[in-house]
Amino acid sequence: MSQVQPSEEKNIFTHLKTMSECIQLSFAVCRIGIYTCFRALCCKGPPPPRPEYDLVCIGLTGSGKTSLLSQLCSESPENIVSTTGFSIKAVPFQNAILNVKELGGADNIRKYWSRYYQGSQGVIFVLDSASSEDDLETARNELHSALQHPQLCTLPFLILANHQDKPAARSVQEIKKYFELEPLARGKRWILKPCSLDDMEAVKDSFSLLINLLEERDFEPSRM
Ligand SMILES: Nc1nc2c(ncn2[C@@H]2O[C@H](COP(=O)(O)OP(=O)(O)O)[C@@H](O)[C@H]2O)c(=O)[nH]1
Ligand SMILES: [Mg+2]
């Protein structure tokens, strides 16, 4: 019987060790391949984080601020109550989350609006297009004050001429003229859009334009 020499034994041992390392490496490569295929097929990973913007929403009582914001948050219209102080809602959109602070629009609350402007990155102003002449004038004065306020004057504005479903509603052209938006808001970033609770798709489109302004992707002085 031939005896295995120590040098041959060492060779066999080295050979076995190399084989075992090769097998381990092949398994590791297979594992990575399977994991990569699994990830590609099954899980796309978490979506990228959406930017958040802090907005203030103002307008007279009854203009429809709470109703519009609640609809955008898919909340039941039955839960809507008059806003006495302020309320904050996180309104989700595909490409951004808007943290909207709605300020109550009653006569005795409006004088405190400016205390809540700090930190805002944009403004939503809602008006009732079918309101009385007196209320429309009050709304105009409030919008003018907001457009000229030092904490808001450089921010993008979305002005929603709401209640367009009502027969008495003024057209967006009439409102633009009555509110003297052209001279006052010249050079500012603002959007004036007609809307009503009946057409939330149009409301969402208007908010998308506002998000564009917030991202400063699509800058033009004014849009209608
Ligand atoms: N017809 C009509 N009614 C609306 C519209 N938007 C709001 N409203 C109604 O107006 C009332 C006041 O709305 P609300 O959201 O509380 O106004 P806010 O005081 O500005 O928050 C509610 O009865 C709403 O259902 C609209 O576009 N058309
Ligand atoms: Mg309200």
Write a structural description.
By secondary structure, this protein is of the alpha/beta class. The chain starts with 5 loop residues before the first helix and ends with a strand. Strands 2-3-1-4-5-6-7 form a seven-stranded mixed β-sheet, sandwiched between helices. It has seven helices and seven strands. Strand 2 (86-92) and strand 3 form a beta hairpin. The protein has helices spanning 6-41, 65-72, 107-110, 133-148, 172-178, 181-184, 200-215; strands at residues 52-58, 86-92, 97-103, 122-128, 157-162, 190-194, 222-223.
Secondary-structure topology with pairs:
Layout: H1 6-41, E1 52-58, H2 65-72, E2 86-92, E3 97-103, H3 107-110, E4 122-128, H4 133-148, E5 157-162, H5 172-178, H6 181-184, E6 190-194, H7 200-215, E7 222-223
Parallel strand pairs: 1-3, 1-4, 4-5, 5-6, 6-7
Antiparallel strand pairs: 2-3
The protein binds guanosine-5'-diphosphate (GDP) and magnesium ion.
Magnesium ion binds at residues 65-66, 82-83, 102.
Q: Give the total of beta strands.
A: 7
Overall morphology: rod-shaped
State the low-pLDDT regions, or none.
Answer: 218-222
Distance between the termini: 101 Å
Average pLDDT: 88
SSE string, helices as H and strands as E:
HEHEEHEHEHHEHE
Oligomer: single chain
Which structural category fits the helices and strands? alpha/beta
Which ions, cofactors or small ligands are bound in this entry? guanosine-5'-diphosphate, magnesium ion
Q: Could you tell me the radius of gyration in angstroms?
A: 31 Å
Helix coverage percent: 40-55%
Number of helices: 7
Query: How are the strands of the largest sheet arranged?
Result: 2-3-1-4-5-6-7
Major β-sheet profile: 7 strands, mixed
Strand residue percentage: 15-25%
